């Protein structure tokens, strides 16, 4: 289990890069591609091995791209920008497919359903998770985050700001993380709130379910820790510490054996899930790392694991994971 | 099947050719083959065809015989002869024929296979081997032989040889699942597990119904630790063969192993559900075959593990919990565990009954019995009677007296200290490096109080096997009881290690206790451990108590309260001695009271405290909580009384808690009876008390609020090295604030004195971010003209993690500075020219910085507000382009909509008021007057409770003026006059409106107000007066009253240090007057103002030089005119130069060309004069002056 730097592109965007996502291989496109979104209001597309630009940048994400998610079929992707529109676009042509508005509150992190029939968005200041269906792009529902029983006083006065959202790979669970560190878990089939997961006490900016155990959830928080939850049984089953500052993003390897995290301490770390320990620290970025993403399996002739990380230093780094 | 015409034809042909050439073996053979095939067809067609077939075969055999005789080197006839004899039942003859055939052609799979089958039937294995070996030796393509050989070698367990044969055979039969399966088995037996898994996988891929391959590869996955894959494989095997007990056994063991893995990570709920499945699988397996002891043992293992890990779930009793419900829940949990343990016991008993000679089942039974004993809690203290577990353990030992592990088991299940010690020592006799025995021995020594021996034993155990939890826990306990700072930390680390290795509730509670005393409660590892402890040991009060502490430290007070209550119930359930229990209940109750108080349930907190007081168990901590709760309830007198009570106890307390209590008393007194009484308490302080952090803070805060009688406390001015850096910087920033607050509280802040103090502090602590932030924010709130520039320079810009302490965060200061520069700081000259004298932000994008901040803290409304302001600033600089306006409107909507729940906060309200005004301004600029008026009116509504409604009226007035609604604008104007403002710019703007509303009469009033305002705030008078005069001049200009305009602007220039814009304006007006009224006396004035403006501006402003050139030209100095024209050329960006500039250059070029001073390359000589002129005409063809110039004789 190790990472080896393959390539780094400095100045890949004109400004801080905030979001990255792999677009899986599709029928018309044999390999997965990397999408990145940045403060410079563009989304760019990169080839997987040499990080060559694969398409002209997609403009118009006003005020900067906060979050990106690619549809599992590999044809379309969605981006959230600071003006709180979700813009859905065709990956290859960059043409707009739909623009989803969530007035008057906001959206932050997004993720497509593993089967691709829904899009979930962390509802920011509305304190909810919003869901859209992906055929006509009509809103399905909005799942409110109930206040936990031990309601704690808010420091900012603004309600519960929901930052991150994650689907379990079997599509049965949906989790969302908030700025006060609570994580709400929903039954995604009956659209019902199940319970809160406790343990973090600072914003949870990123989370991901394990691809091999559909109820194991990995979360990254500003409290510098990475937690492992059994989301179904509502228990904290592991915690990993080592980052010197906020943990901004997390992703799990396709084999489910390792997680990678990006942090405000400007490093990317690789963690062994079995030993609950950091295996490797990459410090090639010189500003905070806002997103890490493992390439999904699939595509022709693709065996090697790839990890991409993007940072405020305007660079993209690609690593070989083996 | 009768012969068809074609076949008959063929037969005839064959017979014919044979008749022609009777000595050809080939032809005999061909006819034989034809006849043989016919015979087969006949036999297959119908039963009665058998006779005909026999006849045909006999005929064929004759031909084959003939062929064999004619050519004994052809194998084919021998093969068919073999078939013939085999069919006739003449096995030896058939074998010989086949042997001949194989010998002649080793690749002949058919003969070879049939020969081997024949030999197999006769059980001539060695012969079979010899045949295969011979064939493989002869030809590498004899794949049948390799296959047969491989199977035989597998059968004979010659694994490595089998692998070679099988691998070779697979080259010939790549899709033969049997071969792959056999290869897998061979690898498996040789211990090459990965290769085995791959081979089995290939077999399953080729034929998905391979149960053997599935089960075997499942077993290997299990051995390699991939439980999940193992479970999958056993499950799919069971789908194929639903009654296969090997698959069930494998499934049960895989699930058990997986569950054990889950237990090690602490996922008990998960483990429990896996174990239930495992024991179900084992149960099914026993129902197939009830007489296999190992299946019963497996069932027992699963049940025993379940009994040990079944978690207690408290989610059902969160609400309305009382003693009874809690007790019932705990009992239910215990019963579940107990029934699982009993199930295990029965299974072990069955296993023992089936195989009483297996010593390890005795041992397992002993362990299980021990667990049941501890759960039932009925340990009789009779040392004579041997306990059941001991007996079973001894039973195992009698069968296998040299098994060291059995000795360890005996030691751990026994209740007798001597026997324990004896067994461990016996175990160590057998193996001196048995770490478990050492660890248990250490435990015994610890219990008997022999510290030295205990430590040695633990040390030895730990050095032999560092992955054993018990010695770590033991060392942790050893270290914890030592005094001092270091060991506590070491003890925490050791205990953490123990918990990570083995999540036992005892270790976890220990970890919680150590964490509580060393301040590590926030650590997620502790949280996880303590939460698990509650799941595993709900009957221990301590687990609930520490759980409460963990919740409390995470500000989850409701859960904390629930936990403390549970802790009390658990204490009540325990049947210990009364006095012991009383103190423990008191401790928990104080915790409970504190949490109640923190959660805002003061009434309950008071009730708890009073209950404690009644029992006489209220200590210093309890008193503080009591007083605080009373104060929160508004019972001030009682609170003061309690605090006095506390003060009496002070001398008897430890130093640390005494200073903390003192700080509490001061704060409470301040809150109840104000600063004077608090000050009195501090004055009464005993001098020798050293001041803690908090106390210093309180004192300097009080000091800040005490305008007159400053505490002349020597402690505050002590040398910096004596106290910690952090504390001192906080104290100093507090003092600075105190200085700023100044004399009377209702006056404006005296920011300057605070600033000068902070500057000194910064000199002392140059790298303290808090002081820098504080300085920056004070600078911003000072009326300093250049504050925004200075503030940015004081604070250091850093990305990423920043501390948010101080009045404003670093981000805020940066952002505020960016939007508060009074000048237009645009860096892009397309929209406007930068008039900012410092250009501090050149190359730095404030909006991007703010966007980063919003991205970092999306919930932060301040960041969003500042982003709105920054974008507004940008819109203003770019003359309100439509796209920016629409983004602004959306952002404003966001900011306003997300603030619904904090309407009471005045600061937020004021922010909303300003944002609404801003939104109104955006509407005004996009000529949407109705919206503008509506939003300004809404702003007035929001602001109804706040004094400063001046600007809303001003905005309304502007909107009405734009609409042309004079009546309304006048009334708004009068409202402005009535509602004073303390912001100077308001008056200046009002002055501009005064003339438009034709309310000149009130002008003086405005000036008076402005002067008052300046005086009150002590701001820079000359700047504001000059600005005011500028406004006056503008008004006069609108009325074409040039004389008074000139007078006003001259006054503006006369004030102190005028701005370049004012100087420029003065020059322009003077020039205009000189031109309009032919009054040359104004030209020198204009020239002097413009000269000053030119000198002051760093990057030369356009048009200034041009005007100056004209003035200088009129004054008769041609060289100065030339110089200024050239300056003007360079002060424009190339793409924006106007036509007039080219015309002027044309004039200049003509001038120079006539002067013929071409030795030094000047700008104008780059082109010929007529070129300049043509360019001017090209840029602006509508100007007749240029055309006239072109008509001049020079060019014609």
UniProtKB/TrEMBL annotation, chain A:
Pfam family, one: WD40
Domain of life: Eukaryota
UniProt keywords, alphabetically: Repeat, WD repeat
Annotated SMART domains: WD40
CDD domains: WD40
TM region positions: none
PROSITE patterns: WD_REPEATS_1, WD_REPEATS_2, WD_REPEATS_REGION
Repeat (WD) residue spans along the chain: 58-99, 155-187, 197-239, 240-281, 282-322
InterPro entries: SKI8 (IPR051510), WD40_repeat_CS (IPR019775), WD40_rpt (IPR001680)
GO cellular component terms given for this protein: Cdc73/Paf1 complex
Name this polypeptide is given: Anaphase-promoting complex subunit 4 WD40 domain-containing protein
Lineage summary: Eukaryota, Viridiplantae, Streptophyta, Embryophyta, Tracheophyta
From TrEMBL, chain B:
GO CC annotations, alphabetized: Ski complex
Classification via PANTHER family: SUPERKILLER 3 PROTEIN-RELATED, SUPERKILLER COMPLEX PROTEIN 3
Pfam family, one: TPR_8
TPR repeat start-end pairs: 75-108, 177-210, 211-244, 435-468
GO BP of this protein: RNA catabolic process
Domain of life: Eukaryota
Record organism: Zizania palustris
Keyword Repeat: yes
InterPro entries on file: Ski3/TTC37 (IPR039226), TPR_2 (IPR013105), TPR_rpt (IPR019734)
Protein name per Swiss-Prot or TrEMBL: Uncharacterized protein
Keywords of this entry: Repeat, TPR repeat
Signal peptide as annotated in the record: none
């Amino acid at each position: 289990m190790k990472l080896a730097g393959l390539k780094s592109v400095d100045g890949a965007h004109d400004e801080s890069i905030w979001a990255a996502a792999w677009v899986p291989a599709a029928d018309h496109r044999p390999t997965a591609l990397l999408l990145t979104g940045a403060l410079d209001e563009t989304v760019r597309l990169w080839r997987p091995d040499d990080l060559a630009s694969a398409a002209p940048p997609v403009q118009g994400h006003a005020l900067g791209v906060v979050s990106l998610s690619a549809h599992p079929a590999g044809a379309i992707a969605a981006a959230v920008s600071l003006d709180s529109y979700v813009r859905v676009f065709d990956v290859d042509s960059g043409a707009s497919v739909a623009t989803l508005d969530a007035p008057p509150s906001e959206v932050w992190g997004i993720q497509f359903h593993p089967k691709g029939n829904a899009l979930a968005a962390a509802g920011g200041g509305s304190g909810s998770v919003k869901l859209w269906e992906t055929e006509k792009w009509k809103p399905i529902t909005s799942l409110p985050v109930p206040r936990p029983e031990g309601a704690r006083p808010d420091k900012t006065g603004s309600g519960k700001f929901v930052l991150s959202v994650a689907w379990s790979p079997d599509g049965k669970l949906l989790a969302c993380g908030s700025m006060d560190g609570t994580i709400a878990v929903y039954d995604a089939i009956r659209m019902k709130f199940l319970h809160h997961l406790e343990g973090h006490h600072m914003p949870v900016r990123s989370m991901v379910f394990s691809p091999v155990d559909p109820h194991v959830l990995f979360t990254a928080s500003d409290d510098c820790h990475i937690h492992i939850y059994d989301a179904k049984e509502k228990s904290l089953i592991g915690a990993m510490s080592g980052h010197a500052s906020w943990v901004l993003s997390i992703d799990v390897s396709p084999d489910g054996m390792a997680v990678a995290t990006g942090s405000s301490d400007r490093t990317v770390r690789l963690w062994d899930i079995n030993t609950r320990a950091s295996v490797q620290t990459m410090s090639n970025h010189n500003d905070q790392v806002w997103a890490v993403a493992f390439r999904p399996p699939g595509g022709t002739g693709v065996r090697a694991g790839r990890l991409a990380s993007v940072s405020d230093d305007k660079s993209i780094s690609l690593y070989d994971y083996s | 099947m009768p012969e068809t015409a074609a076949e008959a034809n063929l037969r005839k042909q064959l017979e014919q050719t044979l008749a022609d050439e009777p000595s050809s073996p080939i032809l005999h053979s061909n006819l034989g083959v034809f006849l043989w095939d016919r015979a087969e067809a006949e036999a297959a067609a119908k039963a009665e065809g058998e006779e005909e077939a026999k006849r045909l075969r006999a005929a064929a055999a004759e031909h084959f015989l003939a062929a064999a005789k004619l050519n004994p080197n052809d194998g084919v006839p021998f093969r068919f002869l073999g078939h013939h004899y085999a069919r006739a039942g003449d096995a030896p003859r058939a074998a010989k024929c086949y042997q001949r055939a194989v010998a002649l052609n080793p690749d002949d799979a058919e003969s070879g296979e049939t020969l081997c089958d024949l030999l197999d039937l006769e059980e001539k294995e060695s012969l079979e081997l010899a045949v295969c070996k011979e064939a493989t030796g002869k030809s590498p393509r004899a794949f049948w032989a390799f296959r047969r050989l491989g199977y035989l070698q597998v059968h004979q367990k010659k694994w490595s040889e089998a692998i070679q044969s099988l691998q070779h055979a697979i080259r010939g039969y790549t899709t033969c699942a049997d071969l792959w399966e056999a290869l897998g088995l061979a690898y498996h037996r040789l211990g090459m597990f990965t290769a085995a898994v791959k081979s089995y996988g290939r077999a399953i891929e080729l034929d998905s119904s391979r149960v053997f391959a599935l089960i075997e590869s499942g077993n290997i996955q299990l051995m390699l630790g991939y439980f999940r894959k193992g479970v999958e494989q056993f499950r799919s095997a069971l789908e194929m063969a639903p009654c296969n007990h090997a698959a069930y056994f494998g499934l049960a063991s895989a699930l058990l192993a997986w569950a054990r893995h889950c237990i090690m990570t602490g996922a008990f709920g998960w483990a429990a559900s896996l174990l239930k499945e495992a024991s179900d699988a084992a149960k099914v397996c026993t129902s197939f075959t009830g007489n296999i002891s190992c299946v019963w043992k497996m069932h027992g293992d699963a049940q025993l593990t379940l009994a040990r890990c079944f978690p207690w779930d408290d989610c059902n009793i969160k609400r309305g919990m009382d003693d009874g419900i809690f007790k019932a829940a705990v009992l239910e949990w215990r019963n579940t565990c107990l029934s699982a343990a009993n199930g295990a016991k029965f299974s072990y008993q069955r296993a023992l009954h089936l195989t009483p000679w297996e010593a390890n089942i005795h041992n397992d039974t002993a362990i299980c019995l021990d667990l049941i004993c501890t759960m039932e809690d009925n340990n009789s203290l009779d040392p004579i009677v041997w306990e059941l577990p001991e007996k079973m353990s001894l039973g195992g030992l009698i069968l296998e007296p040299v098994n060291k592990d059995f000795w360890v088991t005996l030691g751990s299940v026994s209740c007798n200290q001597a026997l324990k010690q004896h067994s461990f020592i016996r175990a160590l006799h057998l193996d001196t490096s048995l770490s478990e025995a050492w660890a248990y021995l250490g435990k015994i020594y610890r219990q008997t109080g022999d510290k030295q021996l205990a430590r040695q034993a633990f040390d030895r155990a730990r050095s032999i096997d560092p992955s054993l939890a018990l010695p770590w826990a033991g060392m942790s306990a050893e270290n914890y009881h030592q005094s001092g700072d270091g060991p506590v930390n070491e003890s925490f680390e050791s205990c953490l290690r123990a918990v990570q290795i083995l999540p036992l509730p005892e270790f976890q509670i220990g970890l919680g206790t150590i964490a509580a005393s060393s301040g590590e409660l926030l650590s997620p590892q502790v949280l996880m451990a303590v939460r698990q402890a509650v799941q595993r040991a709900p009957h221990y009060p301590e687990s609930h108590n520490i759980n409460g502490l963990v919740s409390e430290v995470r500000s989850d007070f409701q859960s904390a309260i629930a936990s403390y209550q549970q802790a009390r119930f658990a204490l009540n359930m325990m049947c210990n001695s009364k006095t012991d229990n009383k103190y423990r209940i008191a401790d928990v109750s104080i915790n409970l009271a504190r949490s109640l108080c923190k959660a805002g349930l003061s009434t309950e907190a008071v009730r708890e405290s009073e209950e404690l007081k009644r029992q006489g168990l209220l200590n210093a901590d309890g008193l503080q909580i009591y007083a605080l709760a009373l104060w929160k309830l508004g019972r001030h007198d009682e609170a003061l009384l309690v605090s006095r009570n506390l003060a009496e106890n002070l001398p008897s307390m430890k130093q640390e808690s005494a200073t903390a209590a003192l700080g509490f008393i001061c704060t409470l007194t301040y809150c109840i009876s104000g600063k004077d009484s608090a000050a009195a308490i501090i004055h009464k302080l005993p001098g020798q008390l050293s001041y803690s952090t908090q106390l210093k803070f309180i004192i300097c805060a009080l000091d800040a609020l005490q305008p007159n009688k400053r505490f002349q406390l020597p402690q505050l001015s002590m040398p910096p090295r004596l106290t910690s850096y952090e504390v001192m910087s906080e104290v100093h920033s507090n003092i600075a604030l105190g200085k700023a607050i100044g004399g009377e509280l209702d006056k404006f802040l005296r920011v300057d004195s605070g600033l000068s103090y902070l500057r000194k502090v910064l000199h002392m602590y140059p790298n303290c971010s808090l002081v820098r932030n504080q300085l920056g924010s004070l600078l911003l709130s000072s009326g300093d003209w250049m504050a925004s520039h200075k503030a940015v320079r004081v604070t250091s810009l850093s990305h990423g993690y920043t501390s948010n302490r101080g009045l404003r965060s670093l981000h805020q200061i940066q952002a505020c500075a960016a939007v508060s520069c009074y000048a237009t700081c645009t860096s892009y000259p397309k929209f406007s020219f930068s008039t900012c004298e410092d250009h501090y932000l050149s190359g730095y994008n404030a909006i991007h910085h703010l966007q980063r901040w919003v991205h970092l803290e999306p919930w932060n409304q301040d960041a969003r507000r500042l982003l709105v302001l920054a974008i507004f600033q940008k819109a203003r600089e770019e003359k309100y382009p439509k796209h920016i306006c629409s983004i602004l409107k959306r952002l404003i909507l966001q900011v306003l909509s997300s603030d619904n729940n904090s309407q009471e906060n005045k600061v937020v309200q004021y922010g909303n008021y300003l944002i609404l005004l801003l939104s109104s301004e955006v509407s005004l600029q996009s000529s949407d007057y109705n919206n503008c008026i509506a939003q300004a009116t809404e702003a007035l509504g929001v602001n109804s409770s706040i004094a400063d409604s001046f600007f809303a009226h001003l905005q309304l007035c502007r909107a009405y003026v734009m609409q042309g609604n004079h009546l309304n604008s006048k009334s708004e104007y009068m409202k402005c006059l009535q509602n004073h403002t303390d912001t100077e710019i308001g008056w200046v703007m009002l002055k501009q409106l005064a003339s438009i509303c034709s309310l000149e009469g009130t002008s003086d009033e405005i000036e008076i107000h402005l002067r008052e305002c300046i005086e009150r705030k002590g701001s820079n008078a000359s700047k504001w007066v000059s600005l005011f005069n500028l406004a006056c001049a503008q008004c006069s200009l609108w009325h074409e009253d040039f004389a008074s305009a000139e007078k006003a602007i001259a006054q503006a220039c006369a004030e102190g240090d005028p701005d370049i814009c004012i100087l420029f304006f003065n020059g322009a007006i003077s020039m205009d007057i000189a031109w309009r009224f032919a009054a040359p006396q104004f030209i020198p004035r204009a020239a002097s103002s413009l000269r000053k403006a030119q000198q002051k501006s760093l990057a030369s402003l356009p048009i200034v030089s041009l005007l100056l050139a004209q003035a200088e030209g009129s004054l008769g100095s041609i060289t100065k005119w030339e110089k200024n024209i050239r300056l003007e050329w360079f002060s424009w960006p190339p793409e924006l130069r106007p036509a007039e500039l080219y015309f002027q250059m044309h004039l200049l070029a003509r001038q120079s060309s006539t002067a013929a001073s071409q030795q030094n390359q000047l700008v104008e000589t780059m082109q010929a004069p007529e070129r300049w002129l043509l360019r001017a005409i090209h840029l602006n063809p509508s100007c007749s002056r240029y055309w006239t110039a072109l008509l001049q004789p020079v060019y014609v």
